[in-house]
Structures are given as C-alpha cells and as structure tokens.
Amino acid sequence: MKRRNLIFVVGLMISLAFAFNAPLALAKDMTAKDFVAEAKKSIAEISVSDAKAMLDKGGVLFLDVREPKEYKSGHIPGAINVPRGLLEFKIGKKMPDKNATAVVYCKSGGRSSLATDTLVRMGYKNLKSMDGGWKAWTKAGYPVE
User: What is the mean pLDDT of each successive set of 10 residues along the chain, which is 145 residues long?
Assistant: First the structure.
C-alpha cells in the first residue's frame, strides 16, 4: 500500500512539474519585428492619406508615441506626445475618454502598432495605427508643427 501511494505521489509531482513548465516550453525567441507583426493582427491600421483626411475632418486625436526629443523636432499639428515607454502610466490623463477616436503614430509604424495594441488591451475602442508613421507623413508633404 505504501509503495502504491509513493508511486502515485511521484507521478502527481511529475505531472504538476510539466503542467507548470508548459508555458515555458511553448515560449519562443521573438524579435521586435515578431512582436510588431503579432500586434498588427489585432489592431486597425490606416494609410497616411486616410490619417490626413481624418485630420482635415477634425474631431480626432493624434497620439505621437515617439520620444519627447523626436516630438519636439516635428509632429502632426495638434498631436499630443505620450512616449510608448510611459504609455500605460500617462495615457489616462492625456486621453481619459476610452471611446475617443485617435490615430496613433511613431517614426515608422512599429512602436505605434505596439502602442495601439496595448491601448486596445487597456479598453480604448476607436484607435487606428498610422502605417508608415512620421516618415510617411513627411514624405507625403503633409503639414507639420
């Protein structure tokens, strides 16, 4: 009887060890590019021309998630700056309405994709990530501040 209990306990311990390590076994090495690609699967992206049309129409917040130095060197007119690294901590004060329509952008589109994904997970509903980012905006010759 004791041997049977011992075998049961050892088997249970081994099963639990595998169960708790399963997430580790499923983990894989991911690059920044992989994270961006994964984020893009769950967000809405718009072209620079669509973002410009939204700016012209009005009623849309433009959220620049670049670093403050990048923002100061030029940004979309009226855009607010919340760096991606501080997004979760600062967005509530800068954008308290989770139903507000906003276009999120960065330098080329990667950080804005990640930021948009984070904001959606935080409950923001009407967000678009601007494909191509600041580079595409300036290349198109659109206005800057």
Answer: 59 52 64 90 96 97 98 98 96 96 97 97 96 98 96
